[in-house]
Amino acid sequence: xxxxxxxxxxxxxxxxxxxxxxxxxxxxxxxxxxxxxxxxxxxxxxxxxxxxxxxxxxxxxxxxxxxxxxxxxxxxxxxxxxxxxxxxxxxxxxxxxxxxxxxxxxxxxxxxxxxxxxxxxxxxxxxxxxxxxxxxxxxxxxxxxxxxxxxxxxxxxxxxxxxxxxxxxxxxxxxxxxxxxxxxxxxxxxxxxxxxxxxxxxxxxxxxxxxxxxxxxxxxxxxxxxxxxxxxxxxxxxxxxxxxxxxxxxxxxxxxxxxxxxxxxxxxxxxxxxxxxxxxxxxxxxxxxxxxxxxxxxxxxxxxxxxxxxxxxxxxxxxxxxxxxxxxxxxxxxxxxxxxxxxxxxxxxxxxx
Length: 353
Hints:
Layout (H helix, E strand, L loop, with lengths): L1 H9 L8 H5 L3 H9 L3 H6 L6 H11 L2 E4 L5 H10 L7 H12 L3 E4 L2 E6 L1 H9 L1 H10 L6 E6 L2 E5 L5 E9 L3 E10 L8 E15 L5 E12 L3 H9 L1 H28 L1 H8 L7 H11 L55 H4 L3
Helix pairs in contact: 1-11, 3-9, 3-11, 5-11, 8-9, 11-12, 12-13
């Protein structure tokens, strides 16, 4: 499967990204930033690729920096003033404001521009568990993420780190989601707890050969319940901010890779979709269908965005078509295999308390 990707990400405009370099990043760093399962996993993860290697990959992938990241107070005030709280339901607004009002670390991530295949880019944004499953299918990570509700996800890593991620609001160009997680490490006396609110925004512009240029920006608000951890985080802000920026670039490299794969070698995406695990059965068919879409030059066609936020009716579906959704989510014990729509984390019971 990795050999197949050499031609996928190397095709087009003479670009040749060395596959081992792409996959040499510590996979948990990329996936945890992609899913934002736990903000501590977001800010404390590290990679093994050098800064020079990453810079070279970014250049070859055609990822353009539009605006530098910032942790300035002025940027935070600007983000708070522009935050679309009114679009959230009353319950979700309370959860969001809890983090915003107790924010101990803020970062406006770099604004980036790059070429994508819009259908697969949007699909992976809408279904982060599918994105995570593709990494397992490629054999480069055992990170787990599963859907536990219409707009709810849980995730865990091999080191015991775990978290939940809930989408509070979504429309054609914006996603607001909240994360609550704990970071485990043998060097720590106890797991570190944190919450984060991420406001992710995109703009799409038609490009050559039916592709699109995406401009993406994001604001991250982090809350550490522990005053001691919050104090250390403030001291380490320059380091953690750099790591968040770096992880964003890595996620964008993944988006470029998948966008090129679906155009240059769609059969590879189709084959991979059949081996996805930890996702609803229909996701395999959906991903394969996206890969099989006819792609032609659409230089004059404007992207069609819905007037209303997309519905997620199909998400609250159990594994079998013969079963009906449970009225109350079923908790699973430690012996039950991870499965979509079966909440596990005790955080589900306490998040609104």
